[in-house]
Amino acid sequence: MPAIPSLGGLRGRANGRANRTVRPPVPVPLSAYVVDCGVYVGGERLPGRWTHTEAVQEVRSRGEGFVWIGLHEPDAHQIQGIAETFGLHELAVEDAVHAHQRPKLERYDDTLFMVFRTVRYVEHDSPTTANEIVESGELMAFLGTDFIITVRHGNHAGLTHLRRELDGNPERLASGPASVLHAIADHVVDHFLDVTDRIEDDIDEMETEVFAPRTRVTSEQIYLMKREILELRRAVAPLATPLRRLSEGYSRLVPAEVHSYFRNVHDHVTTVAERVTAFDELLTTLVDATLGKITLQLNSDMRKITAWAAIIAVPTAIAGIYGMNFDYMPELNWRYGYPVTIAVILGLCLLLYRIFRKNRWL
Hints:
Elements: H1 7-18, E1 34-41, E2 44-45, H2 52-62, E3 66-72, H3 76-86, H4 90-98, E4 104-108, E5 111-121, E6 134-143, E7 147-153, H5 160-167, H6 170-173, H7 177-210, H8 219-236, H9 240-247, H10 256-322, H11 337-358
Parallel strand pairs: 3-7
Antiparallel strand pairs: 1-2, 1-3, 4-5, 5-6, 6-7
């Protein structure tokens, strides 16, 4: 018989579990989230590596230039120090940390907060078999008089190449941090154009498959494509209003010489939005065409089934009549009754077959 533990032993185990200390999570340094931190004066990037506090102190001690800090998926604790240093609004910081925002432009005191939805085309063998065509992410930007802070969510649409390109163009950066915001907007919209070009090729291929004689494209596959188009529309359509506001002098943080650049980006977004709307309408037409082909095929199959049922009904009826067990029926004792009956059955079946064939039921 197993030994029963004593009450004291049970209490000792319980106290042992209660006295166990829960280890706090290992703090992750801010450098793990900072992609890059640069100081720009007169459009030129100053050499050296900077922390966010050293960078802002350098700019404000000079009285010119700006700081560009890039972050990748920071948590609330890590971004808090940057938020306090640059005076970022807590609501905007919360949006930047948790993401899942629609494209928008908001003004908090002397700071602008702008949200972009980034998209990436997912490579696949065929649009008729792909489960995902568009992958989305988010990019936020805080714009101040002497700083711009970008927060990226997702594993695509990085700004490393864009930063290198701007570092080689001091004249463009001479307009201040607003020029960086324009470059980011232009960069995001250029990706929109690339994705729409690739999707247009996919829709052309799907359209060809839908109207092929023996297509295997189903309405579910077209609905999947419509869902991906909807994902692209959510990134493109809401962005038009923020860009238009920036091009019309919404904030003094955007100099007048940058307004025309935002106007150009707004035109590109409008073009992409029109193309996305056209894609959605075309896919709706393809869905209707696919359903119409299915209905037509169903009607054709029903005609064939009906025609064959009518042909089979002839021998069934004759065999049923002569299968009755009556003593007095015509031709029962006739020598040529069987071959004549078979000939009549074949003749009637052949006649019906030719009639249905002529009327394209078979």
